[in-house]
Amino acid sequence: MTTLTHISPVIPWAPKNLTLHNLSESQIELRWSNTYLDHCLEHLVQYRSDRDHSWTEQSVDQRRSFSLPSVDGRKLYTFRVRSRHNPLCGSAQHWSEWSHPIHWGSHTSKESIEPPSLFALEAVLIPLGSMGLIISLICVYCWLER
């Protein structure tokens, strides 16, 4: 009599050595390496900018690269990748852990905040200064009338 034993599914290691390359001013390419044959894996890339609340996901079959055609250099992007076996090479149910994240771009902190324009300062300071001058003149007039 033959007995069957349950074998745990093989879960690939998380992709590693993530790198980003500028393809043009507004296009970047994410590349990574893995420990399995390329034709046996499918990948899931997640990315978001510092202004996004949720991740965008993109499936990548049998390649170790993903290109994002439109990026804004004023945003900070975060990318991560995970892998699983495709149905031709094994169980396609279990994803690997996420790779370590990689970042591209700049923070929206001090570097990307534009200094207030001269027009905005004039729009606030001139009316406030005028009001202060009028109130001061009224106070001086009332003091002299006593």
Automatic annotation (TrEMBL):
Is this entry keyworded Signal?
yes
One Pfam family name is: CRLF2-like_D2
Alphabetized GO MF terms: cytokine receptor activity
InterPro entries per record: CRLF2-like_D2, FN3_dom, FN3_sf, Hempt_rcpt_S_F1_CS, Ig-like_fold
Keywords tagged on the record: Glycoprotein, Membrane, Receptor, Signal, Transmembrane, Transmembrane helix
How does the record classify its membrane topology? Answer: Single-pass type I membrane protein
Q: Which domain of life is it from?
A: Eukaryota
The UniProt record lists the Fibronectin type-III domain at 14-112
Bilayer-spanning residue ranges:
118-144
Compartment(s): Membrane
A cellular component term from Gene Ontology for this protein is:
external side of plasma membrane
Give the family this protein belongs to, as stated in its UniProt record.
Answer: Belongs to the type I cytokine receptor family. Type 5 subfamily.
Q: What is this protein called?
A: Fibronectin type-III domain-containing protein
Annotated source species: Myotis myotis
Q: What is the lineage of its organism?
A: Eukaryota, Metazoa, Chordata, Craniata, Vertebrata
